[in-house]
Specification:
four-stranded antiparallel sheet; OB fold (Dihydrolipoamide Acetyltransferase, E2P); globular; about 450 residues; 17 strands; 13 helices; Ubiquitin-like (UB roll); 4 domains; about 20% strand; alpha/beta
Length: about 450
């Protein structure tokens, strides 16, 4: 019997329209806009100024604090300015603007595609190299990878779990990455195992990707300690806590870190980025992005440079359809509607979804009918109907008591609500307000 997580979950229509579309290198943009905050934590601190010349792979911003990540240029050219730009969240954020001239790479980067299996670096040297490369979690949360690889002294890592679930509807970037770069991913996993000093790694893949399961199982058989775990299809299985539950049947306690279960979770795309950083000296400057939608002429998977305008990738798929209702950064469940298509791609940009007007139209909000569907599907065991009502009434102190900070913002509650209540919107608002309250208390 296939494994899955134990609480809640839903089954949205998969709509994997770009499945098996080969990864195509996107054109280098004429101007790159590289955000300084592409990760959880403090935005990076610029170390370049207007007029400076940079190459592909040049570090342009240092990590600014313990939870932060370095930023590198994805293009070669001249720094035009350091200014603010609207990011995928709709807010103005600081960014470095680069006018592109040619495509000159830093000489330290090994661009040869020959596989390098052996890694003689120590655990500490691996972590430093990953930090220097600016690698963050590529599954969406964008947590700086070096932090996860150095758990607090009171915790000990027992195993590594690789998230290759890609349960978000429409997205196929991770699936295609596995089909085209299985060996590099496996080396990256071995390096991550060495970094956290464990001898077991599990790769969780949902069984709607049988070709990836077959290939990854075959390749993993030649690597010590790595095994593939086929999983039942259920959203949001890609959530860190849900994946731990599914694979090693341990639950992360409320308010605790995932390492409390003995597991360190990394995305499959992160494992590939680790391979490139450690074995090829290549910083995180590009990633696979799915561009998709039912009305889009050619749904595709691109290897795109960080800082490429999303409009450029949409144009490469045939342009914006006439019946476009919304442009979503990410997938339909956890993604966010973009203000415009000129938003630059970032390290966490896994997909761009073009929703037609029919799909994008929300049902008319009605009163809650107390059906409890939202409670039954919540993977964190919360009461979304209650949290929504509390947010509506601005009772954020009560929301904290009702564990709003445990919400993973998966959208399962809103997806299943027959009254079309904007439960995810309310939960996001509540988390934002309660998080600010907690930080204010801690600052006193």
């Amino acid at each position: 019997m296939l494994k899955t997580f134990s609480i809640g979950g839903v089954h949205p229509q998969e709509n994997k329209l770009s499945a098996h579309q080969p990864i195509v290198a996107a054109d280098v943009p004429a101007k790159a806009i590289i955000l300084l905050g592409q990760h959880i934590g403090a935005p990076a601190k610029p170390i370049v100024a207007k007029g400076d010349m940079v190459k592909v792979g040049t570090k342009i911003a240092d990590a600014n604090g313990f939870v932060s990540a370095a930023i590198h240029s994805s293009v070669s050219g001249k720094i035009a300015k350091i200014d603010s730009v609207i990011d995928a969240s709709g807010y103005a954020k600081p960014a470095i603007f680069i006018d592109v001239e040619g495509d000159e790479w830093e000489e330290s980067i090994d661009r040869d595609t020959t596989l390098i299996k052996e890694c003689s670096l120590s655990s500490e040297e691996i972590v430093k190299k990953i930090a220097d490369a600016g690698i963050v979690g590529l599954g969406g949360a964008c947590f700086p990878t070096q932090i996860k690889l150095c758990p607090p002294p009171s915790f000990t890592a027992e195993c590594l779990i690789i998230n290759a679930v890609e349960c978000e509807p429409y997205l196929t970037a991770d699936h295609q990455l596995m089909l085209e770069h299985a060996e590099e991913i496996m080396v990256g996993i071995s390096i991550l195992m060495k970094a956290i000093k464990v001898n077991k790694a599990f790769i969780g893949i949902e069984n709607n990707k049988p070709d990836a399961i077959e290939l990854m199982t075959k390749v993993a058989s030649t690597y010590a300690g790595i095994s593939v775990v086929p999983l039942k299809v259920k959203y949001p299985q890609g959530g860190e806590k849900q994946l731990i539950d599914a694979i090693i049947t341990r639950q992360v306690p409320s308010g605790a870190l995932p390492i409390a279960t003995g597991a360190v979770v990394q995305n499959v795309g992160t494992a590939f980025a680790v391979y490139e950083a450690v074995q090829k000296n290549k910083p995180l400057l590009e990633r696979v992005i799915t561009v998709t939608g039912k009305s889009l002429q050619k749904p595709s998977n691109f290897m795109a440079r960080i800082g490429t305008p999303m409009s450029q990738l949409i144009d490469a798929c045939g342009g914006l359809p006439e019946d476009t209702g919304k442009i979503i950064g990410g997938g339909p469940m956890m993604g966010k509607a973009l203000m415009n298509a000129e938003v630059p791609t970032a390290k966490g940009s896994s997909g761009i979804l073009i929703m037609n007007k029919k799909e994008a139209k929300r049902g008319e909000e009605r009163n809650c009918i107390r059906c409890s569907k939202c409670v039954s599907v919540c993977p964190m065991g919360l009461e979304p109907f209650l949290l929504g009502a509390l947010a509506e009434n601005k009772d954020f102190e009560r929301m904290e008591k009702e564990r709003i900070m445990d919400c993973i913002e998966c959208g399962s509650c809103q997806f299943t609500c027959p009254a079309y209540r904007p439960l995810l919107d309310y939960c996001r608002l509540g988390k934002s307000k309660v998080g600010a309250m907690i930080r204010a208390r801690q600052a006193k």
